[in-house]
Amino acid sequence: MPTPRMPAARHALRVLALLAEHLGPVRAQTIARDLGIPRSTTYDLLAVMRDEGFLVHYPELGAWGPSARVARIGSRVDAATRIERLGQPLLDRLVRASPVPATAHLAVLSGVDVRYAGRGSGRRSPMTVSSVGVRLPAVRTATGRALLAALDDAQVRALVPHDADLAGGEPATRAALGRMLADVRARGWALERGDVDPAYGSVAAAAIDAVGDPVAGVGVTVRLDDADGADAWPVLQALVVDVAHDLSARLAARRSQPTTGGRA
């Protein structure tokens, strides 16, 4: 489908995106220069956006910033709810496409945990603990590992500053965690076998947003006996990567960027 030509709407959205990247108000000249918009057009656009309640003008600074209305729009529905609505059809598709009975789930990072934000299941799906709202340690789950692998090393160190933060399972040290996440980045998906429930395993990949940040882990959990007996892991890995790519596209991410992560 060809992209509609609506330059005024596109300029307005680009202005909001630019202002969101700055900690303080931005001068009109800077907006015009950074976005490549004629200065006269920029002034007219900013005035309209102010009149409609989307921008605030700081006359003493000669600068502009987003209004409280913009913040209200962004917070009306929280991120997890938006992701669930975008991802639910994809989870259902993942369950249908699985070669063995499976439960699919979406998870978001919440500190050092993952919080499950969506779930898809079928008639013979495994009964897992990954109900919506449940929290589990990120390092123990496939979705959590996928999301951690999509962060840079400094962010991971900030979340897991000490080996003691990993007590109670594998990986047991930050060095081991680093090696695990490097493997996940190289593969594009994460695997977990029996770390949450000894009878189950999972594989997952991370979905990213328009600026490249990981926003949700897409995972599928199966009975180990089923998956091992049917040699289903390669198919499951491909399925979660594909679904994570599709969710990234729905979140306006660039399809050309590789999706990282995966957990069992």
How does this model look, in words?
The protein has 264 residues and is α+β, with helices and mostly antiparallel strands. The chain folds into two domains: 7-74, Arc Repressor Mutant, subunit A, CATH 1.10.10.10; 79-250, GAF domain (Beta-Lactamase, 2-Layer Sandwich). It contains ten helices and nine strands. It has helices at 7-20, 28-35, 39-51, 68-75, 79-97, 142-149, 153-159, 174-187, 224-230, 233-250, and strands spanning 26-27, 55-58, 63-66, 102-110, 113-121, 135-137, 190-193, 200-208, 214-223. The strands form two sheets. The chain has a six-stranded antiparallel beta sheet. Residues 253-264 have low confidence and may be disordered. Keywords: DNA-binding, Transcription, Transcription regulation. GO terms for molecular function: DNA binding; DNA-binding transcription factor activity. Residues 69-253 form the IclR-ED domain.
Compact overview of the structure:
This protein is an alpha+beta fold. It contains ten helices and nine strands. InterPro entries: GAF-like_dom_sf, HTH_MetabolicPath_Reg, Tscrpt_reg_IclR_C, Tscrpt_reg_IclR_N, WH-like_DNA-bd_sf, WH_DNA-bd_sf.
Radius of gyration: 22 Å
Which sequence of SSEs, written as H and E, runs from N to C? HEHHEEHHEEEHHHEEEHH
> Low-confidence segments, ≥5 residues, pLDDT <50?
253-264
Summed up, the helix count is 10
Work out the oligomeric state of the chains in this entry.
single chain
State the domain count.
Answer: 2
Which CATH class of the largest domain?
Alpha Beta
Distance separating the two termini: 37 Å
What level of helicity do the residues show? 40-55%
Largest sheet: 6 strands, antiparallel
Mean pLDDT: 88
Total strand count, please? 9
CATH architecture of the largest domain: 2-Layer Sandwich
What amount of the residues lies in strands? Answer: 15-25%
* Overall form: elongated
Strand order, sheet with most strands:
6-5-4-9-8-7
CATH topology of the largest domain: Beta-Lactamase
Structural class: alpha+beta
CATH superfamily of the largest domain: GAF domain
